[in-house]
């Protein structure tokens, strides 16, 4: 505990100074570590593990700030909080980075061999894990580092192997030949959801295949003519009268000369194109299924790098797209290709490399998804369901699960969890097991590794010690309470965690899943390297501090919605932090030598004291409720309004009266209220802005080591005074009305004026008289009259508030003749503007030819000018008739 008697706040708020040493204080003090106290209710979050490939982006900052806010609040509410950190090995991404690094050294993984390559990859992991931790530190994330995990550490690797073998033994994992999504750039398989579809300007190529022993031809159209080299049939619909006579006959494959069967299959759409389709079972998923039904040969025509293989005949060695160009030219020369059409269509691209994905026949490992999906769907029908926030995302999740396809889980990489399958060197027998074969020299392990998402799907329970179901953390902290993640990985990760958790623990992995959107730039565009519109959160922190970034991210939108990044809004949150700093510093300067033991809230309180305590109660209630519902933006609005508008702009200003006065008892009460309200406010604000609140709280009279473990505020019934709130609202309305009238007639607060207040009741008269000091301080009247029977002065400005009417006699307030003259000139100005814009809008040429945006702007100007003209006219009429 720092010395509460010593005020050590610089005159200017500098987030760099405030934030630079505080995180070490928290971590070294063990304030973030789950203590396992059985008297406390556990609250658990597992961090979505970032890829161990380098920088955290703004999305990570947003996601983790929400988690930190929940963890800090729950810790203060007395929960045993475990916020578990960790990182993902990110198979494809990390291997690509390491291989790029080797390339710079004129090496590749094959030069090193698998074992040496993995050593380099582990070195990479250690280097970038430290970098990620430094970014977590800069953001102020309250993580329990004593429990940090990595998807390839020993415990998690054991869990991965247990799940794989168990699913294999249940018949839910199988190995087979199948059409998969192949990335020729990284030369690995991809799951369906690792394929991004983009609209591409392509071509439709129309060809005529000749019928054997006939003058007839059959028309075929394709977007990928190079795949015809692997054609093994032509299919037509069995009910298509145009082709019934051809079923069972053969066509001659151009270029190749191979004879192909004409088969009947109901998959064919008679209405699409010619109604006849070429079948390439090794390079199209639908053709693969047709091929299975008709026992067709599968001819693979490409190497894994996308170049043509020996089955491509004279095109061998060409890149697939170069082959396309060449075969189109050859087909045109032979007269087979008779038409080429422009064709805009969706083409799959690798999420990792950006390469066009190739449907490719390959032997891979798969998860039989339907039984697992059915279990996960049933989970959502009972009380143990996963609650999606917002709940509309449950429909998104269920739709995907109801239309699930088998999951290709093998990847042709070295970095990752190697598949626990071995093949006998002599017999070819396959063995799948938790341990290597007893005679390993006779067996070779499968070269492939598992999809990264396979291990991260186990994250909520593998990190807790599972498969040891007696592990202390697993028994205490699983299932977790909330997962925070973006809607873009519901399928990649959220769904997989749910079905794996249900299968292996019988429970949901988390009670709630809070879904947020994406961070976009100020124009609403997705941030990307190609657009150059990305923003590094560390740069934002360097400029404005972590607290400003956090508060902006938390309060900028509602759950499920995208967030637009604006530098101006981050600056505005810095201004808010600066306001908090300055108000706290002023308060502390008036509390020197005031200790925690000196706080006494039993003394006679002023109206301002009673009102701020009442508003504190109401704010605590709203912030607690909204943060608990994940409505961070709404909670932030209540915090902002209370701190800026009520605590800083009103209460602290009103507190100056007793603080600067001679009444020592009133001074002590004011200091006590100020100390208490600031303490409770810093606690409420702490999960949102941890650094500045800890710094201020340490300067305040307090008890305890850190605000991180201070009790969360609770409303106190004895401090709720509805009458005081109503009185204060009336007082504030009067002061604001007087200020508005002064501004309207350009009379500064320094100039004294007459103020008459006609109250509706004697009780209100007594109330205002009791608070006369506030009216005199903030309205600066030369004369103040409060009564129920006041007559309105002949010439006066007036305003109505609840329970009273105000009159400010014009005499002494303004020079009426001078004001009329000024307003006449202003009316002339706005009249000319109205005439100008209306003439412009009456011009048909302008309205029809100018861009709609320009026309709309002129119409808005017309509205604004007319409104200003009307106000000046009304003011002139009022002055001329008074």
TrEMBL record:
Subcellular location: Cytoplasm
Main location: cytoplasm
Residue ranges annotated as motif 'KMSKS' region: 526-530
Enzyme class: ligase
Residues annotated as domain Aminoacyl-tRNA synthetase class Ia: 22-565
Superkingdom classification of source: Bacteria
Coiled-coil segments: 813-840
One family name in Pfam for this protein: tRNA-synt_1
EC number(s) per entry: 6.1.1.9
Binding sites annotated in the UniProt record for ATP: 529
Reactions performed catalytically: tRNA(Val) + L-valine + ATP = L-valyl-tRNA(Val) + AMP + diphosphate
Domain annotation Valyl-tRNA synthetase tRNA-binding arm: ranges: 815-879
Function, in words: Catalyzes the attachment of valine to tRNA(Val). As ValRS can inadvertently accommodate and process structurally similar amino acids such as threonine, to avoid such errors, it has a 'posttransfer' editing activity that hydrolyzes mischarged Thr-tRNA(Val) in a tRNA-dependent manner.
Domain notes: ValRS has two distinct active sites: one for aminoacylation and one for editing. The misactivated threonine is translocated from the active site to the editing site.
Known partners and oligomeric status: Monomer.
Annotated family: Belongs to the class-I aminoacyl-tRNA synthetase family. ValS type 1 subfamily.
Name by which UniProt lists this protein: Valine--tRNA ligase
Organism: Lentibacillus juripiscarius
Organism taxonomic ancestry: Bacteria, Bacillati, Bacillota, Bacilli, Bacillales
Gene that produces this protein: valS
């Amino acid at each position: 505990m720092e010395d509460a008697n010593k005020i050590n706040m610089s005159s200017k708020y500098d987030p760099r100074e405030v934030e630079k040493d505080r995180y070490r204080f928290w971590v070294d003090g063990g304030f973030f570590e789950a203590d396992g106290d059985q008297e406390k209710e556990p609250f658990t979050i597992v961090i979505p593990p970032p890829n161990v490939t380098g920088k955290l982006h703004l999305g990570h900052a947003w996601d983790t700030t929400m988690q930190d806010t929940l963890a800090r609040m729950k810790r203060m509410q007395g929960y045993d909080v475990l916020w578990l950190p960790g990182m993902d090995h990110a198979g494809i991404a990390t291997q690509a980075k390491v291989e790029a690094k080797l390339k710079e050294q004129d090496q590749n993984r094959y030069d090193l061999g698998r074992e040496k390559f993995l050593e380099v990859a582990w070195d990479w992991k250690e280097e970038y894990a430290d970098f990620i931790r430094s970014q977590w530190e800069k953001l102020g994330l309250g993580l329990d580092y004593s429990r940090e995990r990595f998807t390839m550490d020993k415990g998690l690797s054991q869990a991965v192997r247990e799940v794989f073998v168990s699913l294999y033994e249940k018949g839910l994992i199988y190995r087979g030949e199948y059409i998969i999504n192949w990335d020729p750039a990284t030369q690995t398989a991809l799951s369906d959801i690792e394929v991004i579809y983009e609209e591409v300007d392509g071509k439709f190529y129309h060809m005529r295949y000749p019928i054997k022993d006939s003058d007839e031809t059959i028309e075929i159209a394709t977007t990928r003519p190079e795949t015809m080299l692997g054609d093994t049939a032509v299919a037509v619909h069995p009910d298509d009268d145009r082709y019934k006579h051809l079923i069972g006959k053969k066509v001659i494959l151009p270029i190749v000369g191979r004879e192909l069967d004409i088969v009947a299959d109901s998959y064919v759409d008679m209405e699409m194109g010619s109604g006849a389709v070429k079948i390439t079972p090794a390079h199209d998923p639908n053709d693969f299924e047709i091929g299975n039904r008709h026992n067709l040969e599968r001819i693979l025509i490409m190497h894994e790098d996308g170049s043509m293989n020996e089955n491509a005949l004279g095109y061998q060695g060409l890149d697939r797209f170069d082959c396309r160009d060449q075969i189109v030219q050859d087909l045109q020369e032979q007269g087979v290709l008779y038409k080429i059409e422009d064709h805009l269509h969706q083409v799959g691209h690798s999420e990792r490399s950006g390469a066009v994905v190739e449907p490719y026949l390959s032997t891979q490992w798969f998860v039989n998804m339907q039984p697992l999906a059915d279990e996960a769907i049933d989970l959502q029908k009972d009380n143990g369901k996963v609650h999606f926030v917002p709940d509309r995302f449950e429909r998104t999740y269920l739709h995907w699960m109801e239309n699930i396809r088998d999951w290709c889980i093998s990847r042709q990489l070295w970095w990752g969890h190697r598949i626990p399958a071995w093949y006998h060197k002599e017999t070819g027998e396959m063995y799948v097991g938790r341990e290597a074969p007893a005679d390993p020299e006779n067996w070779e392990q499968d070269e492939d590794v598992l999809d990264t998402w396979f291990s991260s799907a186990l994250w909520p329970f593998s990190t807790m010690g599972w498969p040891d179901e007696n592990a202390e953390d697993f028994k205490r902290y699983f299932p977790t309470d909330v997962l925070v993640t973006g809607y873009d990985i519901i399928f990649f990760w959220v769904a997989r965690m749910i079905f794996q958790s249900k299968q292996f623990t019988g429970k949901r992995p988390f009670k709630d899943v809070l879904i947020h959107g994406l961070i976009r730039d100020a124009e609403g565009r997705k941030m990307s390297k190609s657009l150059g519109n990305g923003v590094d959160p560390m740069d934002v922190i360097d400029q404005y501090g972590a607290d400003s970034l956090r508060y902006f991210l938390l309060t900028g939108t509602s759950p499920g919605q995208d967030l637009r990044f604006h530098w101006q809004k981050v600056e505005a949150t810095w201004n808010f932090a600066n306001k908090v700093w300055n108000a706290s510093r002023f308060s502390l300067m008036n509390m020197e030598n005031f200790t925690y033991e000196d706080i006494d809230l039993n003394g006679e309180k002023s109206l301002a004291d009673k009102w701020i305590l009442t508003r504190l109660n109401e704010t605590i209630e709203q912030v607690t409720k909204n943060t608990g519902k994940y409505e961070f933006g709404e909670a932030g609005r209540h915090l902002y309004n209370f701190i800026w508008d009520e605590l800083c702009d009103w209460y602290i200003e009103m507190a100056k009266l007793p603080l600067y006065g001679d009444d020592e008892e009133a001074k002590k009460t004011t200091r006590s209220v100020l100390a208490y309200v600031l303490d409770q406010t810093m606690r409420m604000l702490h999960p949102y802005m941890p650094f500045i609140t800890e710094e201020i709280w340490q300067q305040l009279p307090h008890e305890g080591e850190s605000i991180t473990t201070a009790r969360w505020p609770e409303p106190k019934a004895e401090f709720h005074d509805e009458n005081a709130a109503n009185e204060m609202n009336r007082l504030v309305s009067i002061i604001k009305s007087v200020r508005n009238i002064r501004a309207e007639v350009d009379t500064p607060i320094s100039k004294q004026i007459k103020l008459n207040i006609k109250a509706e009741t004697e009780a209100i008269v007594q109330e205002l008289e009791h608070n006369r000091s506030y009216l005199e301080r903030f309205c600066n009247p030369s004369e103040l009259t409060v009564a129920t029977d006041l007559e309105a002065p002949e010439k006066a400005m007036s305003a109505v508030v609840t329970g009273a009417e105000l009159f400010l006699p014009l005499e002494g307030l303004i020079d009426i003749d001078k004001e009329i003259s000024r307003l006449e000139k202003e009316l002339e100005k706005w009249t000319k503007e109205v005439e100008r814009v209306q003439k412009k809008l009456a011009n048909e040429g302008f309205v029809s030819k100018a861009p709609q945006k320009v026309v709309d702007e002129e119409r808005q100007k017309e509205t604004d000018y007319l409104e200003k003209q009307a106000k000046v006219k009304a003011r002139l009429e009022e002055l001329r008739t008074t």
